[in-house]
C-alpha cells in the first residue's frame, strides 16, 4: 500500500502521472522539483525507508538504454539494459540496490514513450545484428506491474521485432502482462532462484521459491520462454543438497523445451557497497559467513565460487544441454557508474 | 519549541524538569534523560542555534528522534487541528526540506512555509510558521530525515486572528493534541530502535580490549570480527575460546580462521 507519492512538477500533467495519482487518490501527494530532492540525498536511511517506502514519479532525461557490463549476456552480440524504475518492493538481503541508493523509495520514470523510442533507435542501429535487452537490474521487472503497467506498454514493441531478445528478470508471480498477450518467442521471463531454505532467510517480501516455480510452470504452459538465474549462488552447510534439491524441483515442473537459458552468478559486492550494506544490516548472518576481499570486491573465495558454479552446472547438465548455460560476471558498480 | 506557552503542555505531560539554569536556552529533561526539550524563542536563527545546542547538551545520538512542535497559521486548517508536516519550504531561499514519511499514521499531513516575518495574508499557504525550515536543516545534520518530525497545530487563519492568541490559548492548543502528538512520537521512537541496533557494540569487545593490547587498526578489525562472531555463533562465549591466547595477534587470527571457515546452516535459521 503506497501512502506517499512525490511527483515532479514538470510531469504533473503527464498521462501516466495522472493515471497513477488518480488510482492512489488516498495517498498523500507531494509536489517536488526534481526526484533528486527526495531520492539519494544524504541523511536518508535506506533501512528505515524500507519499512514504508514512498513512490516518486519522475521524468528520465537520459540513459534510457545502456550497455551491460562486459562479460554479461546470454549469448548475443550486443547487450543493453533499461530501467523504468529504481528500487524494488522486495527486500533481499544480498541485493546490491541496498548499497547503491541511500533511499528505499521507488522511483518510477513515467515517460515510457522515451524508453520505447530509444529502444527502437537502438534496434534500428543494430538491425542486422543480434541484440538483447535486459530489464530488471535496478528494479524487479514485474513486481510493481500492477502500479506501473510498464511491461504491458513495452511488450508490444518487442512483438514487432521478433529477432530482438528481451529478458525480464524477476521474482514476481505477477503474470498479468504475459497472460493477457500471446507468448512472444523473443521474450524470456528470467527467474532469480535460490534454494527455499536460503530464500526464507534472505528473500524478504518475495514470493516463495515454490510459487516462483509455479509461476514459471504457468508461463511455460502459455508458451513463454523461461530463464533460470541461479544468481547469486549462496554458500552454507549442505549447499550441494540444497542446490540439487532446487534444480530437481524446477525440472520436475518445467519442461526443458521452455527453458531458453540458464545462468549462474557469484555473490559479489564492490568493497564500498558491501561496507554500506553491512553497516545497514550488521546482524545479517549472510555477511558473517566466509566472505573475503579481493581486487576491490567482496565475495566468496575463488575455490568456493568455482566449486559452486561447477556443481550447479553439472546438476543442470543432467537435464539440459550445455549451450544454453552461461556464467554471469555482473558487477553492479560498473553498470551504475554510467547511470548515476 | 519556540515558545514557553507551546512547551508547557509537553513539559507537564512528560514530567520534564529544567536541567540547568546556566544554559543559554531553557532546557528540560525527564529523570531518565530520555526526553529533552529546548525553548528556542521565535525565528529561524534561534531555532537553528537551539537545535544544535540541544544536540550538544543532551549527547544526542545518530538514532535520536528530533521533533519540532508548535503553532502555525493556516488558510484551510481548522483552529486546533494537528498536522504532520511532510514538506517544508523556506520562504527566503525557496529551499524545500522533506521530513520522513515512514511512520504510518492517520493524522493529517500538510506542507508548510517558513517565513521570517509574521504573515497575515493566508491565501498563499496551507501552513505557515517561523521556525521549521531551520529546524529541519540543522536536525538533518544530526539524524536521518526519517527520524525528524515537524508537528503543527493551527492557531490562526482567515477566521481566527493572530491578535486573539494568548499564551493560555497556545498552551491549550498543544495540550488538546498532546495524546495524538505522543502516540506518533512513540512510533518514531520504535523506528529509532531499528537504527540504534546498527550502532550496537557487544560488551565482550571492550572486555577483550582490556585484556590484550590492540593497535588502532587491530581494534577496528576486532570489532568487525566480534560483530560477525555474535551473529554467527551467538551461543558460544568467545572468551572461552580465546582465553588461552597470549597476544592480540593470536586472538584476531583465531577469530578470522573460525569465521572464514564458518558454514551457515540455512536449515536451522
Overall description:
The complex is a heterodimer of chains A (340) and B (269). Chain A has 13 helices and 18 strands. Chain A is α/β, with parallel strands linked by helices and 340 residues long. Chain A has one domain: pyruvate-formate lyase- activating enzyme. The longest helix of chain A is centred in the last third of the chain and has 16 residues, at 302-317. The two termini of chain A are 28 Å apart. Chain B has 269 residues and is an alpha/beta fold. Chain B folds into 2 domains: 4-197, Nucleoside phosphorylase domain (Rossmann fold), CATH 3.40.50.1580; 203-268, no CATH class. Chain B has helices at residues 4-13, 44-57, 132-139, 167-176, 178-198, 203-211, 216-232, 238-242, 248-260; strands spanning 17-18, 27-29, 36-38, 66-74, 82-90, 96-97, 108-114, 127-129, 148-156. A 5-stranded mixed beta barrel of chain B has the order 4-8-7-5-9. Chain B has a 3-stranded antiparallel beta sheet with strand order 1-2-3, with helices on both faces. In chain B, helix 1 (4-13) crosses helix 4 and helix 7 (216-232) runs parallel beside helix 9. Chain B starts with a helix and ends in a 9-residue tail after the last helix. At the A-B interface, strand 2, helix 2 and helix 8 of A face helix 5 and helix 7 of B.
